[in-house]
Specification:
7-stranded mixed beta barrel; mainly beta; 10 strands
Length: about 140
Amino acid sequence: MRPHAEVEEVWPRDGRIRLVGRIHGRVAGGSDGWRMVLVLRGTDRRLRYPARVKGDRFESELPVSDLADRDAEAGGEVEEWDIHLTGGEAELRVGRQLDDIRGKKKIMVFPEQRLSGWSVRPYYTVKDNLSLECRLECHSEEAI
């Protein structure tokens, strides 16, 4: 199995998303210089956040307000952010590979958080990696 950051806990609440897990497939090294990196799929846009690493354990968090792209057009646009952990060398994909649960995308659902017309929620991809979905909510002027 390729080296990766195995997520053990996902905490989406209070305007933040907190991740806790272990680094697998390589020695974590020192605790300085680690970052959680979010990459907006299909672009070069990256967001970086400090990550605390001790031994093979990691922990990091981000404010969901950073994910609301104010330049997106109205109409239900969806942005997907892939999550990585890096200590300066290679980027390790954050996911959940080591359990026996297959098809997490369809069975593990995290709560969404809403902010300024956006909804943000973590989700597992078809490859059991963790990503974030940001959806611009459509508001109709007509009463239903």
